[in-house]
Design goal:
By secondary structure, this protein is α/β, with parallel strands linked by helices. The chain contains nine helices and eleven strands. The longest helix has 15 residues. The radius of gyration is 20 Å and the shape is globular.
């Protein structure tokens, strides 16, 4: 059982009461916006908790500064003043705590444009399936918990497990669930499905899909061009689906020579099995800056894709 970080929850509640909102952008956009001279220091709450800029205590006020201190999220800035060790981003009407920019720590918890696309894919799936048919659901590699939270909010009678190998991700997921008033979500430490038992009506996942030389958990997908975790999730999830149960995988695919290796894997793996499946590109070109990194010399583009697999037999 994850221990609730109550001071961090109180900080989120205080920001929610102030109608705080922030849309997370790509790291490259964050870098470019913060590089503007007028953005060297935070002048409002979004600058502190969204853009991760240095700030003076009066920018947030005495109450929020005290809550940050109690939650242990105050960092001394090299420029003087302070930095927030966490960010808060909005998704729909909810706020989610996650790691500050830049996400350099090995246990960083990421939240960004992929999160919004992932939530959209889950919403579209749930619109086609009555909530009462979902009794048990799992989010693999939950991160800050937005996928699990979206399922739990839309299916309040379902048991929803939010699994991650990263203890910090589970801590943030617990805070975010409590902040949203979700009572049917349980964080669970697990390496993919190894730490959870039983069958599921729905499994969702947004795994890391990059090659990362630093091996950061939230970013490194392993395998060939970052596809390792996505393939493992397909292989481990399908035997754990009940009849009529579905896997929704939102991930990124490095395209080389006009080929989609994940689509090819699905065609070979799912042929002549008791599954129906649908595969589509949600965005044909994401994180273009990654193509400058080692290992991506032959990659033409990285596409965000959604795979949905349903057991029919």
């Amino acid at each position: 059982m994850t221990r609730l970080n109550r001071p961090l929850l109180r900080l989120g509640q205080a920001l929610h009461a102030r109608a705080y909102r922030f849309t997370s952008v790509t790291p490259l956009t964050q870098q470019r916006v913060n590089a503007r001279p007028e953005n060297a220091w935070a002048s409002d709450l979004a600058g502190v908790f969204g853009w991760s800029r240095p700030f003076w205590p009066e920018t947030v006020g005495e109450e929020l500064f005290g809550l940050m201190d109690s939650a242990g999220v105050l960092l001394e800035s090299p420029e003087g003043g302070w930095l927030s060790a966490v960010r808060w981003s909005s998704l729909g009407d909810e706020l989610f705590v996650h790691s500050r920019y830049p996400t350099l720590e090995p246990d960083a918890v990421f939240f960004g444009p992929d999160t919004y696309r992932y939530a959209q894919a889950i919403e579209q799936l749930l619109q086609r399936r009555p909530a009462e048919t979902l009794h048990r659901a799992l989010d693999i590699g939950c991160g800050a918990g937005p996928g699990a939270a979206w399922v739990a909010l839309n299916c309040p009678s379902a048991e929803v497990l939010a699994a991650d190998i990263n203890p910090l991700a589970l801590e943030y997921t617990e805070v975010n669930a409590r902040l949203a008033g979700i009572g049917n979500l349980r964080p669970q430490r697990s390496d993919l499905l190894s730490g959870v038992g039983g069958q599921f009506d729905l499994i969702v996942s947004n795994p890391p899909y990059m090659l990362d030389p630093h091996g950061r958990v939230y970013r490194d997908g392993g395998g060939e061009l970052g596809a390792g975790l996505s393939l493992a999730i397909i292989d481990e999830s399908l035997p754990r689906l009940v009849q009529g149960g579905s896997l929704l995988l939102y991930t990124g695919v490095a395209m080389v020579g006009g080929r989609d290796p994940l689509l090819e894997y699905c065609k070979a793996t799912l042929a002549d099995q008791d599954f129906t499946w649908h595969y589509r590109e949600m965005d044909p070109d994401v994180f273009g800056e990654q193509l400058l990194e080692p290992g991506y010399e032959a990659v033409e583009r990285i596409a965000a894709v959604v795979l949905t697999v349903t057991r029919v037999g």
